[in-house]
Amino acid sequence: MKSEKFNAIPVKSSEITPKHIYLSRRQFMKVAGAAIGSAAAGALLAACKASPSTPTASSAQPTPAVTGVPVTPFPTLNARTDELNDPLTSYDDITNYNNFYEFTVNKVAVKDKAKNFQTSPWEVQVGGLVHNPKTYAIEDLLNRFIQKERVYRLRCVEAWSMVIPWVGFELADLLKEAEPMTSAKYVRFETLLDPLRLPGQKEGSYPWPYTEGLRLDEAMHRLTILATGLYGGSLPPQDGAPVRLVVPWKYGFKSIKTISKIELVEQQPDTLWNTIAPNEYGFYSNVNPEVDYPRWSQKSERRIGESGRRKTLMFNGYAGEVESLYAGMDLKKNY
Ligand SMILES: Nc1nc2c(c(=O)[nH]1)N[C@H]1C(S)=C(S)[C@@H](COP(=O)(O)O)O[C@H]1N2
Ligand SMILES: [Mo]
User: How far is the centre of ligand 2, averaged over its atoms, from the C-alpha of 121 (Å)?
Assistant: First the structure.
């Protein structure tokens, strides 16, 4: 098992794991086994809308995620803030306020509807324009690739945000193993298609399965990860278990959950949101305070757990790392 402590920023020695988190993590390590079931069909509504309910702030308390994925020794939670010194969003808020339309469009109901979602066995097919196509069991992904802690801001297009301590590995590690052909220019991602287990997919109003895409250089960037956990524990179903994409400089909907297929392709792939409403959700969808969403401004955001609003940062605060990917591009046209 490869495991490594990692942070986007150096961690001060004072930033040790609080005891209650350490203890609940040990309890979590004992948890195994899966619950089976499929929730009742939920009604799907219109596009990505802000929920009327506001979550309450609370202290971080990881609880065992019963997803059925064998427990692996993830890195212990190290960080207490992001690199801008903003505090982590509480575990409670990260796991009780979710967008996951395959379960429900009600953010505060996702956790309950997803609680029995079974993520073992699980396979991720990696194929398309690669020299080494391969189907990975989730255990392979957890064991082959170094699982690191990464603290990232998540900025939803609905203008709320969180600071999330993910556990995961660089997508580049997986893509290098697949060996993209020179004709491969984009990466296409697909969520599992299984309307019995993901009852939102019974709704005909969306082109299921959820799909997303990145340009190959975006996918290879060191900030782009496949997340397999958070807060030093496993990934709860509502957050996209057993494996989801995280691209921190793009609006949250690019970070596709519960992935079963990754394909290297030549042409820019269709994505669910871009297909439904191309004027609202561009292919790039880089966080950009200067480009308003058709229905509201993107200049500011509500950080979950805080009162008031914050200014939204260009590329969600990661401009130094990623702006060179878009040199020469008109970011107002290529939104
Ligand atoms: N398959 C799938 N992936 C998805 C979504 C979804 O509905 N289905 N919602 C997206 C949106 S709009 C956001 S903001 C993030 C939310 O991630 P979180 O619930 O873990 O905070 O997941 C993204 N990934
Ligand atoms: Mo979102």
Answer: 28
Q: Judge whether 4 lies within some domain.
A: no
Q: Is 211 in the pocket of ligand 1 (CB under 6 A)?
A: no
Q: How buried is residue 254: exposed, middle or buried, by Cβ count under 10 Å (0-12/13-18/19+)?
A: buried
Residue range of the domain that includes 183: 25-326
Does residue 100 contact residue 64 with C-beta atoms inside 8 Å? no
Q: How many domains does the chain have?
A: 1
Kindly give the distance from the C-alpha atom of residue 153 to the centroid of ligand 1, in angstroms, as a whole number. 14
CATH number, domain with residue 234: 3.90.420.10
Q: Which ligand is nearest to the CA of 254?
A: 1
Residue 9 lies in a domain: no
Residue 56 lies in a domain: yes
| Alpha-carbon gap, residue 24 to 189, rounded angstroms | 33
Q: Is the shortest distance between the CB of 210 and ligand 1 below 6 Å?
A: yes
Q: Which residue is closest in CA terms to ligand 1's atom 19? A: 98
Query: What DSSP line would sit under 218-249, residue for residue?
Result: HHHSTT-EEEEEETTEEPPGGGTTT-EEE-TT
**What is the per-residue pLDDT across 265-285, written as a single tens digit (0 to 9) for each?**
999 999 999 999 999 999 999
Q: For 206-238, how does the pLDDT look when each residue is reduced to its tens digit (9 = 90+)? A: 999 999 999 999 999 999 999 999 999 999 999
Q: Is 208 helix (H, G, I), strand (E, B) or coil?
A: coil
- If one compares 35 and 126, the residue with the highest pLDDT of the two is 126
In a domain, 6, yes or no: no
